[in-house]
Amino acid sequence: MPSYLITGTSRGLGLGFAAELLKDPKNLVIATARNTAGSSGLQNLKTQYPQNDRLILLDLDVSKVESIRAAVKTLEPLLPNGLDNLVSNAGVSYSSMKTFEEIDIEEFTSEVVFTVTAPFNLLREFLPLVRKSETKKALFVTSILGSIQIAPNLPNLMNAYSVARAALNMLVRKWSVILKDEGITAAVIHPGWIGETDMGDEISEWVAKYNPTLENLSTEKAAADCMKILNNMTKEDWGAYFHQDGSRLPF
């Protein structure tokens, strides 16, 4: 039974990932959030999939390494064959449409620190379980805005977010070179623009004005496409920067 651990599943894309993966009765899905009991979406999934061997809800605050370590200890006896797929989805955006002169430096610092250190600690603490697995995959949700080649063509669109995601991309790209020698495939993925999510809605006015032809994906569509890419990833895809449509993006 392939195992998947997803962060940030209380709503939005993370919840969509969990719902998509649960459609396959062979999958074990570990859906994490800071407060799983407080997520109506996760509780609805638990009602739909009451079997404990199919869906595990686990409280996990990725901003705290102690919480990540506690999650690992909880899961070790439940995953004797390791963790096949680690999906880092939890993210933040504090100053989406502010110019560089308007951004609060404390918010900027907090966004960059979270975006880099949360996935860093997540992967480092879960590596022993990933190493034990057969599949050995780690996928990190990023954004097209983290592309150094593309982002300059989108001025004043989520400036802090762009810087933070570029840093995340570099983290995964650099680390993937080492991990591939252990048979671990780490990659990043841009899930597309999902206007119905909180983060996607923040830029809806910008999209309407500057890029009105941009496809507005449903959460279900984006989640299905991203999970298809994850499941089709091979060892040759180490360090890849995927677009939700299956194409590759420039770093």
Question: Any overview of this molecule?
Answer:
GO terms for molecular function: oxidoreductase activity. One of its GO terms (cellular component) is cytoplasm. It contains eight helices and seven strands, in the order βαβαβαβαβαβαααβ. With 251 residues, it is α/β, with parallel strands linked by helices. It has a single domain (3-243), classed as Rossmann fold (3-Layer(aba) Sandwich), CATH 3.40.50. α4 links the parallel β4 (85-88) and β5. The protein is globular, with a radius of gyration of 17 Å. The mean pLDDT is 94.
Low-confidence stretches: none
Nearest-integer average pLDDT: 94
Given the helix and strand composition, which structural class is it? Answer: alpha/beta
CATH-derived architecture: 3-Layer(aba) Sandwich
Named CATH topology: Rossmann fold
**Fraction of residues in helices?**
40-55%
- Please give the alpha-carbon distance between the first and last residues: 34 Å
The succession of helices and strands, N to C, reads: EHEHEHEHEHEHHHE
Radius of gyration: 17 Å
What is the topology, as strand order, of the major beta sheet? 3-2-1-4-5-6-7
Structure in a nutshell:
It is built from eight helices and seven strands; from the N terminus they run βαβαβαβαβαβαααβ. The chain is an alpha/beta fold.
